[in-house]
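call fold(seq) -> tokens
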Amino acid sequence: MATPWNFPLAMENFTKTIQKYPMTKPREFSIINASIKKGDERFMEQYGWIVWAVAMVLFAIVEAATVNLVSVWFVGGSLVALIVHLLGGNLWLQLAAFLVVSAVMLALLRPFVRKFVVPRKTATNADMVLGKEAYLTEAVDNLRETGAVKLDGKVWTARSLSGDVLPAGTLIRVVKLEGVKLYVEPVHAAAGV
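ret:
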């Protein structure tokens, strides 16, 4: 017949084992005596490794969900705080390690990593039409959605930047490009005449 399980005896044996083979210093361990009261450091002494491991995983999940390098710095800080906890450091030392390592990683690595992560804006051939001058081949009327200009051998849809109607043959300057539409203004208006 099996003997019934004795929880207090099991906890006593577990505590003796922990004290017999301490990692750095003996910690008072008891699930029954664990307290999460405000200001009570016993909770972090007993379960701090779980707190730092969960923080590290959460920061990693947030980083994986974004592409803007938001929290990768805190993953490193959490890892160092976890190591400090396992070596027996108190709560203030763990928090200081977390903050210092996170700040150092942010300051030193962010500029380096942004070179590789931030996409460079590549100028297209369409951007080359900005600032060029040409003559309208069709009258520009934004309300009727008419207007065309020929630039570099290509006919573009043209719209007036100010909303004014511009007759065909008007000398214009391309001010803005939106999709395949050029927003133009008369050259004399651009010169302030």
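The beta strands are 133-141, 146-151, 154-160, 171-178, 181-186.
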